[in-house]
Amino acid sequence: PAWYRTNPAPGVFDWSSADDQMAWLYDSGIAVIADLCHFGVPDWINGFRDPALPIHLASYAREFAKRYPWVRHFTPVNEIFVAANFSAMVGWWNDCATGLEPFARALGNLSMAHELAVEAILAERPSAIIVQAESFERFSPADSSLAAVAESQFWNEARFVALDLTLGRTPSAAMCDVLLRSGLTTTDLAFLREKRAHAQRWIGVDYYITSEQLVSASGRK
Q: What pLDDT does residue 210 have?
């Protein structure tokens, strides 16, 4: 469903663009994976770094689960790492921001939004399956310089942060430091270390192989 259409204002829900499609899927016996936040938010949410994003997504997820109680499979946020990277590091999407702090802020905020949405879904559908879609890249240094090696090491740690946060694991010390400096709190990290939907999560992986030039953690190419 298109979040910007079905949730056109805070606390306002309009399912007219989704009801017919959902009814057809139900009648056809097709198992639906409801992808609630796919690389975009409604205009009234100020991008992936908006502090209110987790609350709004949880509210939306709860209302969706109420509206379509037969849906069992949910992807609360699609490819958190990609969404944060493209929106708040390279500046292509939503936030149009660049740099380490915006990237880390988006990464932590999207992870928090994901887990609050999981709680909201489970409150309505305790047997729900959480289908997490994430991208896996492996970064190699462009040359043997210390800067290139450090850059690839940063990205090889950053690519797992969203999975760590949403699956109740503690990210590396370096990544925790980056997250805390971006605005995530120790209380947030403690909340994210809790495990939810135990034995009710599937992981779907997109493995991308590219030779693109990296944007460094300092924002320089």
A: 64
Q: In DSSP terms, which residues pair with 75 in a beta bridge?
A: 35
The per-residue pLDDT for 221 is 40
When pLDDT is cut at 50, 70 and 90, the band that residue 136 belongs to is: confident
Q: Which two tokens stand for residue 50?
A: 């908006």
Residue 220 phi/psi, 5° resolution?
-95, 150
4-7 long-range CB contacts below 8 Å, 24 or more apart? Answer: 4/40, 4/41, 4/42, 4/43, 6/60, 6/64, 7/42, 7/56, 7/60, 7/63
CA distance readout (Å), 90 to 84, 148, 219: 9, 18, 8
Place of tokens 């992807």: 75
φ and ψ of 48, to 5 deg:
-75, -15
Q: What pTM was computed for the model?
A: 0.93
- Which residues fall within 8 angstroms of residue 121, CB to CB, at 6 or more apart? 61, 62, 65, 74, 76, 128, 130
Cβ proximity of 219 and 99 under 8 Å: yes
> pLDDT value at position 152?
93
